[in-house]
What does this fold into?
Amino acid sequence: ITIKNHGEYPISVGFFLNDDGEIETQTQRKVHCFFPTDETFQTCFISHAPFLLVKSRTQILNKNEINITLVSEIGNLVADTLPELKKIKLLNSNILTILGYRKFYYHYEYDKIINPNAILKPGIEKIKKERLLLSRNGEFLLPSAIYKFATLDLAELISSEQLQELDGRDVHVDFLCRE
It folds into this structure.
């Protein structure tokens, strides 16, 4: 990426696979700046960027414009990765976990709320434009064609065909896949 008045910098994200060949979503990965820091975006992907760090090199320097830009660009890179993960069959019902979907996370040491929108928002925008949400029938659909069920009982009670009839639109709809 290019940061105005500062130059070009490489950034990267990566995913670990479990023994079943699926993205490991249960572990929160550390943010890297050549070496692991104590920081995490509370997501399952590993990230690397040339962040400006505190003197101990264990944490990202707080309230720094370059770091804010780098985090934002990591969010864009993760969003751009989603369709590629779909192509190689690594994207499934794990999409929201990959994006770190949650209300917020609090960085206690620096008394700062780190806004997860830098990671989450580009991914949500990508989901709105591309068929990346997996339905229970294994099809990838847009959010406008997906229903999220409150209980498994409801999803088992109504078939995809019945849901389509209830919806009434001339668009294929289904329930969101839940594993």
